[in-house]
Each structure stands twice: as C-alpha cells, then as structure tokens.
C-alpha cells in the first residue's frame, strides 16, 4: 500500500536529519507546542481525525486519491519548513491510524511461508516497515531510557533501519493465530530444553585453506537411528509437560533427523498431535560448511532452517582453529501477538556482541533461543545482561556432550533461562538454572533430562 511507502519516507527523513538529542527534546515537548502541532495537522488533514478529535482508524476506503493528495501536500510543507516536531507527530498519528490495516496485513502474512516488508521503497529510504506484534512482558516505555531513536514513539509499526541491519538479510515468519494456543489461554510460555546426552557421535577434522586452520565435523552415521529415537522421545516428554516450545543443543543432529521427526509428527493421530509442542528447534547439524538448526511445527512442517553465522574459534596446542562455516547472512524472525518477536542464535552467534546487538536493535527482539555446544556457560551468562534492559528473555541450552576432561566444574549447570520479571517478584526468578544430573559426573547418565521453565506476562 502507498500509505506504508509514505510513512517510510517520513521516517527516513527524520532518521537522516535528526540527531539523538532531537528525540530527547521531542519526548519533552511543552503543551503549547503540542497544541500547535496537533492544530495544524487537524486543519490540514481532517481525514485523520474523528469529530471528537480522536485519531480516525483508517480503512482501505479512506485511502482515496484525495486523501493522498492532501497528505502529500502537507508533508511537502513540513519538509520545506523543516518542522521535524510536527513530522514525528504526524508519524505517530499515522502509526495509530493504520492499526486495523496492520491487523489485516498480519492475516495475509500468516498465509505466506515468509514475508518481506510492507513498503516497496526500502532500498531508497533505508527503512523497512512491518506490523509490530505486542509482547506481554514488554514495558510500555521499552527502550525509551536506553536508546534515543524514532521507534520509541511507535506502537503498531515495527521500524527496521538498514543502517543497523547491515549485510544481514531478514525473513519474517508470522505464526498463525492460536499457534501457541496454551499461551493464549494462560499467558505462560512453557519452554522445554534438554542437554540430550553426554557423548557426541562425531569427530573433528582439521583442514588448511589459504594458510588458515579450519575444522569440520564428521558424523558417525551408524548412530543416527538411536539419536533420532532419543530426540523423538524428548519431544514426547515435552508434550507430556505441556511445553509450547522444545529446544535442543547445537551439533547433535544428523542428516536424517529432520525428515524422521517430521514423519513421526505427521503419522500421529490428530488428538495426539495437538498435544505436541507447537515449536520444535531440532539439534543443529553440521554439513558442507553449514551449521543448521531446523525449526518444525507440531504438524511436521519445516518453518525455517536457521544457519549459524559466526564461526567458533578454539586453540589446540597453542594453534588457533576456526569453524569452517560459510556465513549466509540470513536471519529468521518469528512474530506472534503476545510474544512479540523471537529468533534462534546458535552458540557463537549469541556471543558475538555486534551480531546480537544488530538483531536486538533492528527487530526489537523479545525472546532469543540459544542452542549451544560449549565447554562452559560463563560467557553466555555475561551476555544475558545485554538483553535484560530491552525486556528480551533468553533460553540457553548446552549439552553435556561438550564437557572436556578437567572442565567438569563448568557443567554444574547446562542451561539457563533469563527472564524479565515484575518489580515485585523475587529477584532470584530472573535467572533460572538447569542443573546437570549427578550421573554426568559419576558416569551413570540416563539421558532423561528435561528442563521446564515458564515465561510469563508481566
């Protein structure tokens, strides 16, 4: 729709011409200035207001040639006069006026495999617009005290700046209504996570390419069936716990796991299938320079495949070695009303501060799922705080298969959930620990771990 192109152009102008201190000053505009701004907007574009001066909620029938002509004439005047306060106020009014149109847009996006932005001038404006799903644990004034930028003043539109996104390519998946049916009813998002096992069915091979040491993963194909059955059992256990999401660690997948699990889900009787977790993040699988986690729904559909973007580096006998993966730059963002926006960051992606902040700032993430294969948790716990002041919850799950001799003490906990809580809640609930079983240290691991945590509305 042309209305979104116009809003994108307005946003682009403000972002281009206004410094951070402008947004601080706009947040403290005095009453006389507010009256002046609202007065001229009502005078010049009466179609944006009801008789009681409330913002008129637009329908497609309202978007006539006359409406656009009036709007564009006013925008031209604002640009000539460089009245940026009035321009931001106009953006705010349009953000509210299109709220019903955005709901209809969400419905159309839900029928697509993935979606792109609503405006077709993203390349020219450097701005992308999408409907902004609300989040039940997000503060109303989220970001206002941490970032000085335009989207602090928007509630219905998700504003994405290309300058923040950089080289990354975004795909947006709007999950259908009632996808998380239990959450809709209870306002509790139940997450299941498992360390899965204490052994790995792969070896590491080092290669030298153009003077750089790389490593690649070689799997033992004879173990695939046993691993697939174990993963399936964990999914069923998560279903028994009424989990909405189940998350597995990194690297413990295999080439047949996705089709195996998908097939099992498709074969279930409808009544049993409805009890399964709504979203399943399978263990990632390393193959031909890609480390990929498949994401399925309860019906066996593959919603996306998220590739790891940032290679892991380790030292062996004083020599550095880099994970031999290729960056695809593709990031999948899930949208759901009540939960907001969430993404999957595989291990090193979460620890790469620049990458994490790109996603946090561009998409205003409210939940991050972090599958990991790591010899310790310290760096991950440190990164949790980067998400805290943005009201973004984090689920991190490691695997006991990553434990190395001499580093057993690093595995007291194999996962954490970092949650936003209300001010009146117990502070200890901010960080929920997934304690490893006694069998990990005495050699009697039964592969039966499954951790359950609820992320609640605040």
């Amino acid at each position: 729709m042309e209305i979104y192109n116009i809003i994108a152009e307005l946003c682009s102008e403000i972002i281009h011409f206004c410094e951070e201190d402008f947004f601080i000053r706009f947040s403290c505009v005095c009453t006389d200035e507010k009256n002046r701004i609202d007065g001229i907007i009502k005078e010049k574009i009466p179609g944006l207001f009801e008789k009681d001066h409330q913002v008129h909620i637009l329908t497609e029938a309202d978007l006539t040639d006359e409406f656009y002509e009036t709007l564009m004439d006013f925008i031209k005047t604002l640009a000539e006069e460089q009245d940026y306060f009035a321009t931001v106020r106009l953006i705010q009014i349009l953000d509210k006026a299109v709220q019903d149109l955005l709901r209809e847009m969400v419905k159309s996006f839900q029928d697509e495999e993935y979606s792109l932005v609503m405006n077709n001038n993203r390349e020219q404006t450097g701005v992308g617009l999408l409907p902004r799903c609300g989040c039940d644990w997000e503060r109303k004034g989220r970001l206002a005290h941490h970032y000085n930028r335009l989207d602090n003043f928007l509630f219905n539109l998700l504003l994405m700046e290309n300058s923040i996104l950089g080289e990354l390519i975004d795909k947006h998946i709007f999950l259908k209504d009632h996808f998380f049916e239990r959450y809709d009813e209870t306002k509790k998002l139940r997450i299941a996570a498992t360390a899965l096992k204490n052994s790995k069915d792969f070896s590491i091979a080092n290669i030298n390419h153009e003077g750089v040491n790389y490593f690649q993963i070689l799997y033992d194909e004879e173990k695939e069936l046993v691993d697939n059955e174990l993963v399936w059992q964990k999914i069923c256990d998560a279903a028994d716990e009424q989990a909405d999401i189940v998350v597995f660690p990194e690297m413990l997948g295999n080439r047949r796991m996705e089709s195996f699990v998908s097939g099992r889900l498709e074969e279930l009787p409808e009544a049993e299938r409805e009890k399964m977790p709504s979203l399943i993040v399978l263990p990632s699988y390393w193959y031909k320079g890609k480390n990929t986690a498949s994401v399925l729904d309860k019906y066996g559909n593959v919603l996306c495949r998220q590739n790891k973007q940032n290679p892991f580096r380790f030292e062996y006998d004083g020599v550095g070695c880099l994970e031999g993966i290729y960056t695809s730059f593709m990031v999948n963002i899930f949208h759901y009303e009540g939960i907001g926006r969430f993404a999957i960051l595989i291990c090193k992606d979460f620890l790469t501060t620049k990458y994490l902040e790109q996603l946090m700032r561009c998409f205003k993430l409210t939940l991050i799922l972090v599958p990991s294969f790591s010899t310790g948790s310290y760096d991950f716990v440190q990164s949790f705080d980067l998400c805290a002041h943005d009201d973004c919850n984090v689920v991190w799950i490691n695997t006991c298969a990553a434990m190395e001799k001499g580093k057993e003490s690093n595995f007291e906990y194999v996962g954490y959930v970092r949650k936003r809580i209300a001010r009146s809640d117990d502070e200890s609930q901010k960080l929920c620990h997934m304690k490893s079983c006694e069998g990990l240290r005495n050699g009697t691991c039964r592969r039966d771990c499954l951790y359950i945590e609820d992320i609640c509305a605040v």
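The radius of gyration is 24 Å. The longest strand covers residues 202-209.
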